[in-house]
Amino acid sequence: MRHLLVPFAILGLLAACGEAAGPEPQTTSASTASNEPQVGDRIPDPETSNDLEDSNRLAAAGAEANDAASRGFREIGWEELLPDGEEERLAQLYQQQMAMLYSGGPIAEGSAADQMIQIGTFNTVPELNEIKVRIPGYTVPFEFGANAEIKEFLLVPYYGACLHAPPPPPNQTVFVIAEDPIRLRDLAQAVWIEGTLFTQTQESELADAAYTIRVDRVETYTY
């Protein structure tokens, strides 16, 4: 299984872009205060674990993937949403953005340049259109309705995207549509989304998405 949520090189550039665009968010000391993710954190990869507890988690994750496959869902990682050569294109776009940001000197807080800009393309992988998939990520709701139940939200590859950090590229952002309302209680809790994936563009005030998922099932991601 692959759980890589965004290329490390792009995450580094994105983090630098966030620092240039505004003050650095405050964080707690190295995971001593809580187990909650920090802004920019990706979902931990169980394949890197060695101890018995994590090995058991990996086995459980494998069983869940097999169960999903038996129901017709293909487990995918975020890197699979990027067409060939897209990582290189994204790196170039971030480098160009960084050069533009620094060319004019420091950015004043509250100025027109002090904003989170979505960088990237709408290039997709055509073979993924109308495929039933299972993908992990963090939720970004547009608003909370009664009892915190929503029918539309964004699924993103790292914690804090669109709210505390710049949005990921459109082809690393998924617009999620649920027929029945879903209750989201904790944005710091990653989830598994199962549904039918479409190469369908959606625009929103928070970020644009190159992919859309119509939800069949939502599960908590176990770290």
Summary of the model, kept short:
This protein is of the alpha/beta class and 223 residues long.
Descriptive overview:
This protein has 223 residues and is of the alpha/beta class. The chain has one domain: OB fold (Dihydrolipoamide Acetyltransferase, E2P), CATH 2.40.50. Helices cover 23% and strands 22% of the residues. The chain is built from three helices and six strands, in the order H-H-E-H-E-E-E-E-E. The chain has helices spanning 8-21, 52-70, 86-103, and strands spanning 74-75, 131-141, 149-156, 174-183, 191-198, 211-220. A five-stranded mixed barrel has the order 2-3-4-6-5. Strand 1, helix 3 (86-103) and strand 2 (131-141) form a beta-alpha-beta unit. The protein is globular.
What topology emerges from the helices and strands here?
Elements: H1 8-21, H2 52-70, E1 74-75, H3 86-103, E2 131-141, E3 149-156, E4 174-183, E5 191-198, E6 211-220
Parallel strand pairs: 1-2, 4-6
Antiparallel strand pairs: 2-3, 2-5, 3-4, 5-6
Helix pairs in contact: 1-3
CATH topology: OB fold (Dihydrolipoamide Acetyltransferase, E2P)
Could you state the order of secondary-structure elements as H and E?
A: HHEHEEEEE
Give the total of beta strands. Answer: 6
Helix fraction? 10-25%
Keywords:
single chain, 223 residues, alpha/beta, OB fold (Dihydrolipoamide Acetyltransferase, E2P), five-stranded mixed beta barrel, globular, disordered N terminus
